[in-house]
Amino acid sequence: MNGQLSDNDFESLINDGDLALSPAAEDNSAAEASALPQQDLSFFGKIPVNVTLEVASTEISLKELMEVDASSVIVLDKLAGEPLDVKVNGALFAKAEVVVMNGNYGLRIVELSGNGLGGLGA
Fold first, then answer.
1. What is the DSSP letter of 121?
2. DSSP 8-class letter at 80
3. Class of the 42-121 domain?
4. Domain layout of the chain by residue ranges
5. Per-residue exposure over 76-104, b if at least 16 CB sit within 10 Å of its own CB, e if not
6. pLDDT tens digits, 62-90
7. DSSP helix/strand/coil, 97
């Protein structure tokens, strides 16, 4: 015997299911995976991200923009009192309202967008 399988022998092995894992082997692999130590991902917490607050936006023509002066008012697309968009690296993260704490502006998160940080990778 030369130790090699013919194409017919190989196909019969696959079709007969002889190469499938037994249920016990599947259970062992699941147990081994759960026994692996969880990786410590806390070092990701030190990565800086850019958090911005977007008050509102609007679309105007270049002609209108060229006519803007120091007394001009540009009407935005949000009503006063509506929650503002908090973006992390340009992706929507949450809705918030502006608060003042010790003389500094701050953000009070009123609603997380989607999965919070989990939604930012998309």
1. G
2. T
3. mainly beta
4. 42-121
5. eeeeeeeebbbbbeeeebbbbeeeeeeee
6. 999 999 999 999 999 989 889 999 999 98
7. strand
